[in-house]
Write a structure and sequence with these properties.
The chain is of the alpha/beta class and 589 residues long. It folds into three domains: 3-121, no CATH class; 125-257 and 380-530, 3-Layer(aba) Sandwich (Rossmann fold), CATH 3.40.50.300; 261-364, no CATH class. It is 24% helix and 20% strand. It contains 16 helices and 20 strands. A ten-stranded mixed β-sheet has the order 12-11-15-10-16-17-9-18-19-20. The protein has a six-stranded antiparallel β-barrel with strand order 1-2-5-4-3-6. Strands 7-8 form a two-stranded antiparallel sheet. Helix 7 runs antiparallel to helix 9 and helix 11 packs parallel to helix 13 (442-457).
């Protein structure tokens, strides 16, 4: 490879960084990988590799800013000096000495580039995207699957940093690159869809995918196809006795999910209705614990209902009323049932608990029910390789309930297997909402457990947030892989991004969508990657009509006899020529 420049002698060269003066007619750019040799005499020769992290150009010989005009007019002699700052990534063999001023510097390409980025020593290479010059970039899977480390954290501005897109790309790469071998078949992922409906089309090809993007997948050794095995679940529409999934842009291939009263009581899910930041300052935890314990003892009825004092309870509102009767009996002289209220609890505390519980009815009553035929069949089963749990239309309190319950069930189930394989991935955006730095909640405790013990259990968290500075430090610090998209300027200055060199911090404020800085333990310098445009539909307009998308007028496309939103169907038949049966659950009669 031809020389692009030489190590300069006017700036100190250290074993960790040095400056390179570019030769006339040569140029490099940020993120280029460079190499320089040094002869150690009897100890042989070493090669120092590094990444360009900063550049500068200036006139040598000028004293004043205005000299630029005289130099440009040829009235004042000066030379243009263009230099690049290089931060060391690797020394081969590992001998840390500075390069000698004047030493020729070249671009590292091919196998030499792989050595510079330590790829040649990585046995299991997870495709992470492409470099600026179109070369594949990899993550060491050992730092994702728990072998040497685990968990991924992604930060960036909402809508610009494409955090969720990169998280799904990493999952697609895991499942389709062959890096997991035979384990890929049993590996599963749960993705919480917390904003919009962009994740409801992972199983549909992207009609907007360009040939350039397809070529990018080819360079990474990945197919330009949607996800193979996807299950999409959504909460039922409030007030709908048929429990129709509450989605707007897609109506087929989606199942409703909810919990029966039996599951809610016997699995002790009540605390997750109190899983927000203010609850730790309340005094009703004694009541909460006592009520939870009593609910766990209730006998089970038909369709997952429960029995209490001879009554059959099949909806959440009725359960709340029954709990209130135990804590606030009609006869004021009798006082609350001590088994339900706990000991030494005042009236104010009981009233606070009941108010808080009653206020949850309108937000979660459609999620906790046993009033339709086959209620137990609509529990989350996670049989597909990827399960998208759509919660974007739920109230924040209902979102926390769903996230907390699913996390606990997933973690407990994995712990019960006693084996870390196959892996279980969890993708959760808005991590700062569920694991805030300055407060505690049942959800935060579970996420801490996942971050600190999930590695040994095979539960891997891919968390994302706009501001890592607002997330519990122990969760972020346990993530071996740190990814940064475009950042707000104020956020980029936080200590949480100390792993980014100053120039990269500044550059992170202007990154374009699809570009991410990836930091992994194998490299001391974060590398910039660009990942291909999703091969799966990321919005209704990109999905094929057979996916059941809805246009702007609310009229659904009809194809292959499927039932779409906007159809004049009368259950249980859709009214089309095919006579397809509506698979939605029907009200219990």
């Amino acid at each position: 490879m031809s020389t692009v420049g030489r190590v300069i002698g006017t700036e100190d060269a250290t074993p960790l960084e040095f400056w390179v003066a570019l030769a006339p007619g040569q140029h490099v750019q940020l993120d280029d990988v460079l190499a320089v040799d040094r002869d150690l005499g009897d100890d042989g020769q070493i090669t120092l590799y590094g990444i360009v992290i900063q550049m500068r150009a200036r006139h040598e010989g000028a004293r004043f800013d205005s000299d630029v005009f005289l130099i440009s007019d040829g009235k004042l002699p000066a030379e243009v000096s263009e230099c690049a700052m290089v931060q060391l990534t690797r020394a081969v063999p590992e001998t840390f000495v500075p390069p000698i001023p004047g030493a020729p510097v070249r671009k590292a390409v091919g196998e030499e580039r792989n050595r510079a980025l330590d790829v040649d020593r990585v046995e299991r290479q997870l495709p992470a995207g492409l470099s600026r010059d179109g070369e594949p970039m990899f993550i060491d899977l050992d730092f994702v699957d728990g072998t040497k480390g685990a968990h991924v954290n992604i930060s960036g501005i909402s809508g610009v940093a494409t955090k969720t897109s990169y998280a799904t790309f990493l999952l697609f790469s895991l499942f389709n690159s062959g890096v997991l071998g035979q384990e890929a078949r049993g590996t599963k992922a749960i993705i919480f869809n917390v904003k919009g409906e962009d994740l409801l089309f992972l199983d549909q090809p992207n009609r907007a995918l360009s040939q350039e993007a397809r070529a990018g997948y080819g360079q990474l050794g990945l197919p330009a196809t949607p996800f193979d095995s996807v299950g999409i679940v959504a909460p039922p529409r409030p007030g709908d006795p048929a429990a129709t999934p509450a989605t707007g842009s897609r109506s087929v291939g989606i199942k409703p999910f909810f919990w029966t009263l039996e599951q809610f009581c016997h699995q002790q899910l009540l605390p997750f209705l109190f899983a927000d930041a203010e609850d730790e300052r309340q005094q009703y935890t004694i009541v909460l614990g006592a009520v939870t314990a009593q609910l766990a003892r209730l006998p089970t009825g038909r369709e997952g209902s429960v029995h209490l004092d001879g009554r059959t309870i099949d909806n959440f509102s009725a359960l709340v009323d029954a709990i209130a009767e135990k804590l606030q009996p009609e006869d004021p002289d009798s006082g609350p049932d001590p088994a339900w209220a706990g000991r030494a609890v005042g009236t104010g505390t009981i009233n606070a608990f009941i108010r808080r519980l009653a206020s949850s009815v309108r937000h979660v009553s459609h999620l906790i029910r046993s009033d339709i035929a086959g209620s137990p069949e609509h529990s989350l089963d996670f049989q597909d390789q990827v399960t998208v749990v759509d919660i974007h239309q739920l109230h924040d309190r209902a979102k926390r309930f769903v996230v907390g319950v699913v996390l606990r069930r997933t973690f407990d189930a994995k712990e019960a297997t006693g084996s870390a394989r196959p892996l279980q991935f969890i993708v959760l955006d808005e991590l700062n909402k569920y694991a805030p730095r300055d407060s505690s909640s049942p959800i935060k405790e579970i996420l801490l457990d996942v971050a600190e013990r999930g590695r040994s259990l095979g539960v891997i968290l891919i968390g994302a947030q706009q501001t890592a500075s607002e997330v519990e430090r122990r969760i972020v610090s346990n993530c071996a892989i740190r990814v940064v998209g475009r950042l707000d300027a104020a956020e980029a200055g936080r200590d949480n991004y100390g792993f980014l060199p100053p120039a990269q911090r500044q550059r992170a404020t202007i990154l374009k969508p699809g570009s991410m800085y990836v930091n992994q333990p194998r490299l001391p310098v974060p590398v910039l990657v660009e990942f291909p445009f999703p091969a799966w539909a990321s919005r209704p307009a990109e999905a094929a009509p057979s996916a059941g998308w809805v246009d702007g007028d609310g009229a659904g496309a009809k194809s292959d006899g499927a039932l779409f939103r906007g159809c004049d169907a009368t259950p249980p038949h859709c009214g089309l020529a095919c006579g397809q049966v509506d698979a939605r659950p029907q009200p219990r009669r």
